[in-house]
Amino acid sequence: MRILLTNDDGYDAPGLAALERACAGLGELFVVAPSEQQSNMGHRVTGATGIEVTECGERRWHVGGTPADCARLALTHLIGPVDWVLSGINRGGNLGADIYMSGTVAAAREATLLGHRAAAFSQYVRRGVPLDWDVAAVRVRRVIEVLFTRELPPAVFWNVNLPHLDPGSPEPEPVDCPVDFAPFQVSYRREGSTYYYAGDYHGRPRRPGSDVDQCFNGRIAVTAIPLELR
Question: What pLDDT, on a 0 to 100 scale, did the predictor assign at position 144?
Fold first, then answer.
């Protein structure tokens, strides 16, 4: 099996290293990730300017572009067809309306547009609770082993969000759930002529049974995202 790994937190992010550990032994791994942090980039792609690509090891590249650029370049020039494209593990949830803003999700969406099976993985982060990437890697591996056996319709990709549990908590179960499109809290703090975003991600609205609700309640939210959203 040929598996492309990418992300939006950058080539050196611990979440990408955790994803690589999660995929150990599953097949031939390729890493193509942004040279720098590209969070909240959405599905931006580079068209008018050049994209610097640096080969930094066997089957490894970092790209001076966006997550969607990474997927495009990997699948059309650097690597070619693969069996799966896995994006993440993002530091922070990509739940509900986040799927429109997330570079992590955009990489999986771009791969799906190009006809490949794909999944995005994100780790929700709670304030004041330590984040253990080794634990995240183990949980992602459990989910990957399930997803690789499931039917994935054309033009659909997986979006997976891990809960952030207290150390020693029972292992969370994956739950299939819909995207929560409840309006996101929008709030800014003004200092002179400058506005700073001040919304409370952790206090956002949530609909029972949705991806936001399931993840915030300690379960692994697994959502099938069609390219054509209705």
Answer: 98
